[in-house]
Design brief:
Blueprint (H helix, E strand, L loop, with lengths): L2 H9 L2 H8 L5 E3 L4 E4 L2 H8 L5 E2 L12 H7 L14 H14 L2 H6 L1 H16 L3 E3 H6 L1 H11 L6 H16 L4 H27 L5 H9 L9 H35 L1 H9 L4 H11 L5 E6 L3 E3 L2 E3 L4 E5 H4 L34 H18 L4 E2 L20 E3 L1
Parallel strand pairs: 2-8
Antiparallel strand pairs: 1-2, 3-5, 4-10, 5-8, 6-7, 9-10
Keywords: Heme, Iron, Metal-binding, Monooxygenase, Oxidoreductase
Protein name: Cytochrome P450
GO molecular function, one term: monooxygenase activity
């Protein structure tokens, strides 16, 4: 794999999407080692055909850890299936606790907490002349919220959040061997801490998401959970962190970046806060936090006019579909008055994001608080914005803002 080419693709995939859309059928991407699905109609179709296009391998790593890192990972408590890379009955089983745990009622139960924590964070920001909003807001608030929902002790939240980021770095970023080993150790420690919670909730259930997952994935009545059951619970909780926290953090950071870059859009929200819910949808469309996932042909099939033999891998790009001119007028323009119905920023079909409601609750709260309290916010003149090299959790590396 040409890592330099992959890095360039990941930091700015949109020119690649535009070129691919101009070609008939699907285009094979050497950078992603997959057929690139970029047209809105093709992406919707691919996401609506789980029986033909399997999710197995959806989270295939871009980097292979060195043996010492793999040995450290083996000391953890993972290895179970997860909702993002499963099909059929297994997918239904893994998704059920996500759906129940992130229900409208559950999100409503933390709305006051979201408001209180957002106000407290913005109080701290307002006391300074500026800050990096990635570190001090976009990563902090969603971490505290998911920690609250999971039922984590407050002192465990920072390590759990960091462990989630280290897991994605190890899988999707090239790193030096020693850093890989260090990341693997952190991930294994996180897994053991989550395993402690799993066993505790099995013994003494509570009204939290960890209990929801334990109840769904481990049969009631058993005095002790098996190693396999614990691994399934821990893996699913890690997956929830990936989908329920890191994705929200990424979208929050990129949303603030693009609104502040397009000053007239930010000022429109300051003047008309009723536009904020539409602005959240437009930002999810404009720069999707999850750019896409891989799918594998379960049998010989066709998509977008291209024949795909059994085993062929496609990269189904939500980000490309959301910039498709056939679906959205002036798709490369951010417009908070657009109301982008049908955008795929939160996915589509059986794998649509179960945490979308929770993400929207946080994003709208943040925009209401920032536009009201810090309307003069602007990108720091000296800031050099770089996007992380990843197709998941697309976000600026940092976001230096002054007010």
């Amino acid at each position: 794999m040409d890592l330099a080419a992959l890095d360039a693709f990941q930091r700015d995939p949109y020119p690649h999407y535009a070129r691919a859309r101009r070609e008939p059928g699907l285009v094979f991407s050497a950078e992603l080692d997959a057929w690139l699905v970029t047209r809105y109609s093709d992406v919707r179709e691919a996401l609506s055909r789980p029986e033909d296009l399997s999710s197995a391998g959806a989270l295939r790593p871009d980097a292979t850890p060195v043996p010492r890192a793999r040995a450290e990972m083996a000391k953890g408590v993972g290895g179970g299936g997860v909702v993002l890379s499963s099909d059929g009955e297994a997918h239904h089983r893994y998704r059920a606790p996500h759906t129940r745990g992130l229900s409208a009622a559950r999100v409503a139960s933390v709305q006051d907490f979201i408001g209180e924590r957002t106000a407290r964070i913005v109080d701290g920001l307002a006391a300074e002349d500026g800050a990096d909003l990635v570190e001090n807001l976009a990563r902090r608030l969603p971490g505290e919220v998911i920690g609250r929902l999971l039922g984590l002790e407050a002192q465990d939240v920072p390590a759990v959040v960091r462990g989630g980021y280290r897991a994605t770095e190890l899988a999707f970023r090239p790193m030096e061997a020693e850093d890989q080993v260090a990341a693997a150790r952190e991930i294994a420690r996180l897994q053991h801490r989550m395993d402690d919670y799993v066993r505790s909730r099995h013994a003494e259930p509570r009204d939290d998401l960890i209990t929801e997952f334990v109840s769904a994935l481990a049969p009631a009545g058993a005095r002790e959970l098996t190693r396999e059951q614990r691994g399934e619970c821990v893996s699913s909780l890690q997956n929830l962190l990936l989908a329920g926290h890191l994705t929200t953090s990424a979208l929050m950071a990129s949303m603030l970046l693009h609104l502040l870059r397009h000053r007239e859009q930010w000022e429109a929200l300051c003047a008309r806060p009723e536009l904020i819910p539409d602005a959240v949808e437009e930002c999810a469309r404009f720069d999707s936090p999850i750019q896409g996932f891989r799918r594998r042909a379960a049998a010989d099939t066709s998509l977008g006019g291209t024949r795909l033999p059994q085993g062929a891998v496609v990269f189904v790009s939500f980000g490309a579909a959301n910039r498709a001119p056939a679906r959205f007028a002036r798709p490369d323009r951010l417009d908070v008055t657009r109301r982008p119905r049908g955008h795929l920023g939160f996915g589509h079909g059986v794998h649509a994001c179960p945490g979308a409601r929770l993400a929207r609750a946080q994003l709208t709260t943040v925009l209401h608080e920032l536009t009201r309290r810090l309307p003069g916010a602007r990108l720091a003149p000296e800031a050099r914005v770089r996007m992380l090299p990843t197709m998941i959790h697309r976000s600026p590396e940092r976001l230096d803002v002054r007010w």
